[in-house]
Amino acid sequence: MKPATEAPAFQPLYRQIKTLITRSLVSGEWRPGEPIPSEVELAGRYSVSQGTVRKAVGELAEERLLVRQQGKGTFVASYAGERSQFPFLRITPDAGPLQELTAELLDLQRVRDPVSAPVLGLAATSGIYVLTRILALNGRPACYEEVRLPAARFKGLTRAVVEQHECMLYSMYETRFGVRMLHAEECVRAVPAPREVAGALHVPLGLPLLQIERIAYTYGREPSELRRCYCDTREHHYRNAITG
Predict the structure, then answer these.
(1) Is 2 exposed, middle or buried (CB count within 10 Å of its CB: 0-12, 13-18, 19+)?
(2) Does the model's pTM come out above 0.85?
(3) Which value, to the nearest 10 degrees, does the dihedral of the CA atoms of residues 33, 39, 43, 44 take?
(4) DSSP labels for 79-99?
């Protein structure tokens, strides 16, 4: 296979190889947590030098799509097995470190949501799973979340499946459905606590909460999760590291 026929000719050769490797990740040829072929094997597959493959793999590792393990090889990055199953969570306690993070499933329904569907790249009549849960930080309920997922991508999602994974969604997405969330975009604002949220978090109705709306994307920048999170910031705050 000649890489020049697979990607625009003006791209550096290693970028063409990077594109081809990414396509294999998108197609599910190599799933999260699994090893990819060695650099020698990939060089033979794409008819390029091992150094070209190494540079392509290096960029994918920097972007956290791949993980290099000394003496073992290169693996598709995975949230499964990581200590934190909440990679995009930016809420942390005001006093002391975050030592314990747990999730409790409240409800799971399949609905039609013509407002949310276009955000997920779906037709207005498409099925959507709506999952609600409570996040507790260091044993204290802190966040109420509504998570919307394309039903076609997450076929077979049930309460039993969620609870089997202890409501750890990103690990469940990968191991059960082969979907890895790579990055997310957020919109943050202050809102009064709605009745259902106030009841679930045991806070006064109308208490100012931090609302975080997030769209998470998988390979190919495909929106695969829409999440609305209501956070009680009386003992917690939003923290994010920004690099230039």
Answers:
(1) exposed
(2) no
(3) -80
(4) STT-S-S-TT--EEESSS---
Q: What one-character-per-residue DSSP string does the chain give?
A: --GGGTS-TTS-HHHHHHHHHHHHHHHTSS-TTPBPPPHHHHHHHHTS-HHHHHHHHHHHHHTTSEEEETTTEEEE--STT-S-S-TT--EEESSS----EEEEEEEEEEEE-TTTGGGGT--TT-EEEEEEEEEEETTEEEEEEEEEEETTTTTT--HHHHHHTTT-HHHHHHHHH-----EEEEEEEEEEPPHHHHHHHT--TT-EEEEEEEEEEEGGGEEEEEEEEEE--SSEEE------
Phi, psi of 129, rounded to the nearest 5 degrees: -85, 135
Name 128's Cβ contacts closer than 8 Å, sequence gap at least 6.
Answer: 110, 111, 112, 113, 116, 117, 120, 122, 148, 149, 150, 151
pLDDT tens digits along 22-44: 888 877 788 888 899 999 999 99
| Tokens encoding 145 | 């979340």
Distance CA 10, CA 13 (A): 9
Cα–chain-centroid distance for residue 79? 9
- Measure CA 27 to chain center: 17
The model's pLDDT over 233-243, given as tens digits with 9 standing for 90+, comes to: 999 888 887 76
Phi, psi of 20, rounded to the nearest 5 degrees? -65, -40
Closest CA to 119 of 144, 143, 92, 146: 146
Which residue type, as a one-letter code, is found at position 221? R
Biggest alpha carbon–alpha carbon distance for the chain: 64
